[in-house]
Design brief:
By secondary structure, the chain is mainly alpha-helical. The chain has one domain. The protein is 81% helix and 0% strand. The chain contains eleven helices and no strands. Helix 3 packs across helix 10 and helix 7 packs antiparallel against helix 8. The chain is globular and about 55 Å long. The two termini are 28 Å apart. 51% of the residues are buried.
Length: 253
C-alpha cells in the first residue's frame, strides 16, 4: 500500500506540473523506479499514466487555444503525433543503458535552453537589428524533433516547447501554455498506443492505475490554477522545477 500511495501522490504532482508548465516526468519517473520498475519500463509507464492528466488539462484550456503564428494547429498536432510514435519506437529499441546515460544530459539541455534561450534571442536580435523569427515549416520540423524526444523521454519536452516558441515566435509562457498542453497530449497519446502493445508497462497494473488516477486529478486541478498565473511566475515555477530535477538526476547518477 505504501508503494501505491507513493505512486498516487507522484501522479497528482506530475499531472499538476505538466499542466502548469512541464516537468511531470521528473516526478513520475523516479517514483516508478523507486517502487521497483526498471528505468525503461518506468519511462513507458509514466508516458502512459500521464496521458489522462494531459487530456484533462487540454479540456480546461480548450477555449483558449490559439495557432502558433502562421502554423496551423492541425499540422502541428499531426507532426506531434507522428514524432511521438517514432520516439516510442526508439525507447523500445535502444539499449536500456543508453537511456540511463542520456537522461541527466537531456534534462540539463532543456534547463539551459529555458534559462538562457530568451536572453540569447534578444541579444542576437539586438545585434541584427531585427527580431529573430522562424517560418511555419521550421516550426513543424522543430516540433517533430521535440515530439520524437517526447515519445522517447517525456521529461522537459514541455519546457523545450516553451523555449522554442518563445525564441522563434516571441510567445510568452502564459499565451502558449494551452497549445503546449494540447501538443503534449498528442505526443503521449501516440506513444501510448505503441507502448501499451510493445512494452511491459502493464506488468504492474496497480502501480499504473494509481499514477493514472493521480495524474488525472492533478492535470485538471493544475490547469485551473495555471490559468491564473502571470508569464513571469509561470516561467519561474518551470525553471525552478527544471533546475531542481536536473541536479537530482546528476547526483543520483
Amino acid at each position: 500500500m505504501s508503494d501505491i500511495l507513493l505512486v498516487l501522490v507522484a501522479g497528482v504532482a506530475a499531472g499538476a506540473l505538466n499542466s502548469v508548465g512541464g516537468g511531470g516526468t521528473f516526478v513520475a519517473l523516479p517514483a516508478l523506479v523507486a517502487v521497483g520498475l526498471s528505468p525503461v519500463t518506468a519511462n513507458a509507464s509514466s508516458t502512459i499514466a500521464l496521458v489522462p492528466g494531459a487530456v484533462a488539462s487540454g479540456w480546461v484550456y480548450r477555449r483558449e487555444l490559439a495557432p502558433l503564428g502562421e502554423t496551423s494547429t492541425r499540422a502541428l498536432t499531426t507532426v506531434s503525433v507522428v514524432g511521438g510514435g517514432f520516439g516510442a519506437v526508439l525507447l523500445l529499441t535502444l539499449p536500456a543503458a543508453s537511456f540511463d546515460a542520456a537522461v541527466p544530459w537531456l534534462l540539463a539541455f532543456a534547463t539551459l535552453v529555458l534559462a538562457f534561450g530568451r536572453r540569447l534571442s534578444r541579444t542576437v536580435s539586438g545585434a541584427l537589428g531585427r527580431r529573430i523569427g522562424i517560418s511555419p515549416r521550421a516550426v513543424l520540423i522543430a516540433q517533430f524533433f521535440l515530439a520524437l524526444y517526447g515519445g522517447y523521454f517525456g521529461g522537459a519536452v514541455g519546457i523545450m516547447m516553451f523555449a522554442l516558441w518563445g525564441i522563434g515566435l516571441g510567445l510568452d509562457a502564459a499565451v502558449s501554455n494551452p497549445m503546449r498542453v494540447t501538443q503534449i497530449a498528442a505526443i503521449n497519446l501516440s506513444a501510448t498506443a505503441l507502448l501499451l502493445i510493445a512494452s511491459d508497462a502493464l506488468s504492474a497494473p496497480l502501480v499504473l492505475a494509481a499514477m493514472f488516477a493521480g495524474a488525472l486529478a492533478g492535470g485538471f486541478t493544475g490547469a485551473l490554477f495555471a490559468r491564473r498565473l502571470s508569464d513571469r511566475l509561470l516561467r519561474g515555477i518551470i525553471l525552478t522545477t527544471a533546475v531542481t530535477m536536473t541536479v537530482l538526476y546528476f547526483v543520483r547518477g
